[in-house]
Amino acid sequence: MATLTPTLLKQFTSVNDIADIESILKDALALKKNPFAQSSLGKNKTLGLMFLNPSLRTRLSTQKAALNLGMNVIVMNIDKEGWALEMQDGVVMNGTTVEHVKEAAAVMGQYCDIIGIRCFPGLKDKSEDYNEVVLNKFLSYCGVPIVSLESATLHPLQSFADLITITEHKKTNRPKVVLTWAPHVKALPQAVPNSFAEWMCKASVDFVIAHPEEYDLDKKFTDGATITNNQNEALKNADFIYVKNWSCYKDYGKVSCMDTNWMMTNKKLSLTNNGKVMHCLPVRRGIELSDEILDGPNSLVIQQAANRVWAAQAVLKYILESIK
Ligand code: AN0
Ligand code: CP
């Protein structure tokens, strides 16, 4: 494998932590071709994966990426297996929380060289979520590099894998990529669409976001995107259709649209340029995406999930090179 110049990476919480997207993308594709090229880079280094919420892909792909680099991995479902954590400063802890994140994060940092943390938003207090209160506590107190495994507002490992997938499957230099809202039965975070938007606005693509009226995302993540409430119009000539539900940002955490017409179907696919359909998974069949799409030839959802390994491996490689 060609030796690429190491780039310093001290944390991975957003696309903005990456100095050169093209070069980390090349690195991920090179690792995909040759997964064990650096199988001793992580020797005697420990990755801790801390989950405050469920996960299938992030958990397995990040573990696999670390193992490919020769790291040791510790996984903990803190929400179920740990003590209830206090996040607020200056409180008298006479309630249900048992230890403060100040100690918990600092202790984790004693056992791990890199820590991955998954901390979904509560979807109740917009300012708490959008200030990334939990992620920032870990950043402040653990003393080692942090990798976001999906925070309150962003999911950068997912978006990086999405960019890898688009790069592999694009047929033109500048494909049209459409992020479209889809219905769901629950209130979901805005992290996946925020993050996808943030990455696509920096990528070499024509990027359109389609959503019902009340579903505008925070402008700080969508600057540069074309935004419309007309899904059919957006889908015209699309090369990639990224389907995702999210709850309202303005009327924070609310579900104000249940319009089943927003579900992605083969009929809608016929408006596109034989577009490839993407979803980060887990997906609700018959709600967000039809069976015919998920089981059909245009779905890229499994390839996307597979690419999570190479995104995570490139990120861990950069961080390992920075802390060597
Ligand atoms: C989560 C979300 O929408 O953020 C995780 C996606 C990777 N999805 C669900 O909770 C269903
Ligand atoms: N896409 C994704 O992050 O999946 P998990 O929630 O299963 O990790």
Explained architecture:
With 324 residues, this protein is an alpha/beta fold. 36% of the residues lie in helices and 14% in strands. The protein has 13 helices and eleven strands. The strands form three sheets. A five-stranded parallel beta sheet has the order 9-8-7-10-11. A four-stranded parallel beta sheet has the order 2-1-5-6, with helices on both faces. It has a two-stranded parallel ribbon with strand order 3-4. Strand 8, helix 9 and strand 9 form a beta-alpha-beta unit. Helix 1 crosses helix 13, helix 2 packs across helix 13 and helix 7 crosses helix 8. The radius of gyration is 20 Å and the shape is globular. Bound molecules: N-acetyl-L-norvaline and phosphoric acid mono(formamide)ester. N-acetyl-L-norvaline (AN0) binds next to helix 8.
The strands making up the biggest β-sheet line up spatially as 9-8-7-10-11
- What's the number of extended β-strand segments? 11
As a whole number of angstroms, the C-alpha radius of gyration is 20 Å
- Tell me, briefly, the overall form: globular
Structural class based on helices, strands and sheet pairing = alpha/beta
Ligand set: N-acetyl-L-norvaline, phosphoric acid mono(formamide)ester
Estimate what percentage of residues fall within beta strands: 5-15%
